[in-house]
Design a protein that fits this description.
about 25% helix, 7 strands, about 200 residues, seven-stranded mixed sheet, alpha/beta, 5 helices
Length: about 200
């Protein structure tokens, strides 16, 4: 089956923010809250250039990180070497994870799942549930239906509101925290949901 990736950006080849070497607020907050700490086993879905994976590894976290882009993974590995940190970077699809059941304490989905079509999203949700330990955490980020592009593409599964998330994840996860974020880059306005969940 073809993995359909959405591209809502008209002029950008990719979102340049993902090239940043600094960790995202999602990752930093997981550390601040004590959810991710030394010895925690984390899976970073759609790790890109490794900004969050390398940040975690630098704090003694055990990190597996996946992406489908070999160029991005090579850059992530290069950055990890420069930082003297160890991350297991793997080129693999998020809907077919090569990890054992109940392997991870935390899964970070900082913008991976929302880029896929609904069928693939549903498979990824089940895979996350499978590889998380009992009471493990899922930190999710994805574009919301308040995103300006949703008006142009109202049928796109890339945009989800809290009700959609509850329907798609509710069988497997308890929602603990929800935060809406809005921001602008040079070309686009964005609105998304940051949702912390725990495996049931």
């Amino acid at each position: 089956m073809e993995l359909k990736i959405f591209n809502i950006f008209k002029k950008q080849k990719e979102n340049s923010a993902w090239k940043d070497e600094r960790p995202t607020e999602l990752a930093v907050n997981l550390v601040k809250k004590g959810i991710v700490k030394k010895g925690t086993h984390v899976l970073d879905l759609g790790c890109g250039f490794g900004r969050n994976s390398n940040y975690f590894a630098g704090r003694g976290v055990v990190v597996d990180a996946i992406d489908i882009d070999e160029e991005g993974l090579n850059e992530a590995r290069k950055r990890a070497d420069e930082m003297y940190v160890n991350v297991n970077y793997v080129k693999v699809r998020a809907d077919s994870l090569p990890f054992s059941d109940s392997s991870f304490d935390v899964v970070l989905d900082g913008g991976c799942t929302h880029m896929c079509n609904r069928e693939v999203q549903d498979k990824i949700v089940r895979e996350i549930f499978r590889v998380l330990k009992k009471d493990g955490y899922l930190q999710y980020f994805g574009f919301s239906k308040e995103h300006p592009e949703f008006k142009r593409k109202p049928q796109s599964s890339q945009f989800r509101d809290l009700e959609d998330i509850e329907k798609q994840y509710g069988e497997y996860f308890e929602i603990l925290e929800v935060r809406k974020d809005s921001w602008k880059d040079m070309l686009n306005e964005h609105t998304g949901l940051n949702i912390l969940m725990r495996k049931k």
